Amino acid sequence: MFPPVVIENLDVIALILLGLLVEKQYISRPAIWANVAAINIHLYDYSFVSNWLTWYANIGLLVAGLALYTYGFDESLPGWYYTLAWAYSSIPVAAIAYLTWSGAL
Asked: Rounded to whole angstroms, what are the CA distances from 67 to 45, 71, 77?
């Protein structure tokens, strides 16, 4: 059986795994949305979240919103956007989730 922390956070884990599956050569806009949703759902459950994590999650909402908007209208985004979006790829999001689960953040 899985440890309780895995069961309690299955929604976040599933979204991060989804992101990992689609991130082969680049981070896609749906993966950005899934990872931002995962980190916001994860942080919502904590009673104390540091200011920098709150900023990270909130900026992620803007990044994800722009990703979904342009994806829905089949528009392209500039290169700087994808550089910023790597901060919301599965590896950093999973690292933040792990560090908050472990109590390090």
From this structure: 25, 6, 8
Annotated domain spans of the chain: 4-101
Helix H or strand E encompassing 44: helix 29-44
What pTM was computed for the model?
0.78
Q: What is the pLDDT along the chain (105 residues), one digit of tens a residue?
A: 778 878 877 877 777 777 677 666 677 888 889 889 989 998 988 878 899 999 999 999 999 999 999 998 999 999 999 899 999 988 888 889 888 887 777
Q: Is 78 exposed, middle or buried (0-12, 13-18, 19+ CB in 10 A)?
A: exposed
15/35 Cα distance (integer angstroms): 6
Of 45, 47, 49, 31, residue with least CA distance to 93: 31
